Amino acid sequence: MLVEIIENFGAKIIKIIESVGRIMIFFLTGTANIFVLPFQFAKIIDHTWFIGTKSMFVIALTGFFTGMVLGLQGYYSLLKYGSEAALGSAVAMTLIRELGPVFTAIMITARAGSAMAAEIGVMRISEQIDALKTMHISPVRFLFTPRIIASIISFPLLTALFNIFGLLGGFVSGSLMLGINKYVYMDTVISSVSVNDITGGFYKASVFAVVVTTICCYQGFYTHLFKEFGARGVSLSTTNAVVQSCIFIFISDYIITFFLV
Amino acid sequence: MNRRKTEFYVGLFVIIGVLCTLYLFVTLGSVNFSRDKYYPVHGFFTSVSGLKTGARVEMAGVKIGIVSNVSIDKKQLLAKVEFSINKDIELSEDIIASVKTSGIIGQKYIDILPGGSDIMLESGEAIYNTESSLDIESIVRKFIFNNDQ
Amino acid sequence: MTNPFIQFTDIKKSFGTNSVLKGVNLSLYRGEIIAIIGKSGTGKSVLLKHIIGLIEQDSGKLLINGTPLKQLSFKDKRNFQKTLSYMFQDNALFDFMNIYDNISLPLVENSNFPKDQIEKRVFTQMKQLGLTGIENKFPAQLSGGMKKRVALARALVTDPQIVLFDEPTAGLDPVRKKNVHLMIQEYQEKFGFTAVIVTHDIPEIFNISQRIALLDEGIIRFEGSKEELFNSQSKILNSFIKGENF
Known about the structure:
The complex is a heterotrimer of chains A (261), B (149) and C (246). Chain A has nine helices and no strands. With 261 residues, chain A is mostly helical. Chain A has one domain (41-260). The mean pLDDT of chain A is 88. With 149 residues, chain B is an alpha/beta fold. Chain B is 26% helix and 34% strand. Chain B has two helices and eight strands, in the order H-E-E-E-E-E-E-E-E-H. Chain B has an eight-stranded mixed β-sheet with strand order 7-1-4-3-2-6-5-8, with no helix packed on it. By secondary structure, chain C is an alpha/beta fold. Chain C has a domain at 96-159. In chain C, the strands form two sheets. A six-stranded mixed β-sheet of chain C has the order 6-7-8-3-9-10, with helices on both faces. A four-stranded antiparallel β-sheet of chain C has the order 2-1-4-5, covered by helices on one side. Chain C is globular, with a radius of gyration of 18 Å. Classes of the chains: A mainly alpha (261), B alpha/beta (149), C alpha/beta (246). Chains A and B meet through helix 2, helix 4, helix 6, helix 7 and helix 8 of A and helix 1 of B.
């Protein structure tokens, strides 16, 4: 009885260690292949189009409304202390340090990350990945490397877009609707944000790019290792990809913030 | 999807993204690509608690520069604050720089009281008259102990 | 007959507790068409995947020109595998690429041909297989028979020495089945590659294959020419050919 419990526990641990090892090898192979010529320029463009360009609208929209709600909430919280003039700095700091990178990463995970996992998962179950191997094309290089470069390009740029639209949203709700002087708003925004805050936000965005892409591609790539096969396997790996990406966005966010502050 | 079209939209995306990034850095982060607009001076304070890099430097309530660095002077054990002051503002050597707070939980900034001397501060020179942060705690403590005695 | 090109000696492979190959002995000769027949799920595809290196055996040896594959240097192994092509059962065409990109992929990624030469080769291949004019379509827009031919074009575009067919006619009507068989035969005569065909098409496959192997329950029950097959008195063989249960 006791032995059995320990055995099961041990089996779980071994499984976890195995998958950690697999994901590390997957990640290292993929990133090492960035430096292997020829450079996969056309594929990177395609994936940047999918991950970056097609996410612009949804990022701008969510950014705008996040800023609006921050302006609204911040205004009434600050009003209690008579510091509603500091609204600009409250909105700007929250957006640029935290919400911008995190929300952007989550939105891209939902839009592009799930698609990555599903697409690669379908390729796995329909033997397209095996077909690549029979043609002596490294599937990791072919599928993962261009995506991670496209993500590293797209995430910080989309984060910047999110921040700008967020500040605009805060301006609309705080200044146009609640009547804070627009010069005061802009001035508090400008004076409170330092270069370190902005670069910190971009560090986060780049790390999230790596985390999200690695997890999503990995989940799709190893779809066949699930107990469920076929369409069920793909749906499982897509769900896992999104859930795990979000979890690791928050965990890595804490770790980066810890080292940045 | 047409190949050229894809490339066009990706290019557009990157341009918009880079513009947003530049806006953030230049306007909000106050990164000066033309450093020459400012000249540096510095001053020593016994306490600058709460003062951050990038804080405003004001004279008569008007912004004339920013705090470019806050560090500790290891010899005197005082806070060394470096300022970047607009080129077109000339400061005399007997100005008083003091750390002030805007609003009750607001941010710290540096207020500069103009002096009357004819000798002007040169780039890189030190401000001699400084006033440190108002420490509410110590004021309260002083008040309580005075009552006790 | 000359020495075998590829030789399986006592190959065993199991997945978990499920033992699929239980000691396979089989010889493949250069330039022949060999058909591997057998019931579904007896490991015919697994056998094929050993040759191309998608699966590695648990025990036994796979000899290439007399040398075990595992003992070949990395470079020799790669050079050998570059002469192979594999045609998957479900085609395994890349959904996100158009037909031209699908067929040209093995050339684009692995050779130093200039672009115009690749283009020429791909279009010649497409023309020979009657695929002209669909280069900008996507696999999902094609019929099953067309997809098969695209997969065949992709397998042949690299001028392979050995082509492994995993049920090339699965899901095709009798007319197209015959066409695929004739196509394989025609190209085999034209290019002289070695064709290994895993199939259920009995007796049609006997018309084009020189030798036949029967895989059943993880071992090769029969290996030889079709005359030998028909003259064989083996009960298993006869019942399999007639589609009876055994």
